[in-house]
Amino acid sequence: MALEHVTLDGYVSSRRNLGFEWTWRAYSEELAAYGDEHIRADVDTAVYGRETYLGMYEFWGGRPNAESNEHERAHADWVNAVDKIVCSNTLTTADWNNTRVIGGDLAAEFGRLKAQPGGTMSVYASPTLVHSLIELGLIDEFRLIVHPVVIGSGTSLFPDKSELTLDLLESKAFASGAVYTRYRIAQEG
């Protein structure tokens, strides 16, 4: 499963700074609570590409702190405790607790991981990794938070020439203007 914040024009990263500075306008307490209680409720493994992992570790690894609000403290507790996978061909170790590094043949690695018992594995941000997993047919669901912004350029959610048929499983609009949608890859036949 891929969990992505996406602009109305289909971008998941602006390619500036951290790449998702545009999410804060519509990120509300209502959306944060819904995310905590519903969107990631079944996730027991967070999956990151190398760049996203390094940014998440830098930001969340030292949290919560005195300046953190209630949502940040709850999210920090969750993300520091959850099992994490970082997909990288350059990292060989990961310093964040409960983190393992996988590289090489992602199809074989994720095939093995998906066969094991457990909850949902969710890729967070990591657009290059999401593109690779889409091309390998390893994304079975998209949970998208569409933000009411247009940024004109950046990294799109789907790689060029992607062709997917999706079934809408649920949607919810928020007062901030963001809309959550959950899609499953349609089954052939």
Automatic annotation (TrEMBL):
One of its GO terms (molecular function) is 5-amino-6-(5-phosphoribosylamino)uracil reductase activity. Residues 6-179 form the Bacterial bifunctional deaminase-reductase C-terminal domain. Coiled coil: none annotated. One of its GO terms (biological process) is riboflavin biosynthetic process. This is Bacterial bifunctional deaminase-reductase C-terminal domain-containing protein. It comes from Nocardia stercoris. The lineage of its organism: Bacteria, Bacillati, Actinomycetota, Actinomycetes, Mycobacteriales.
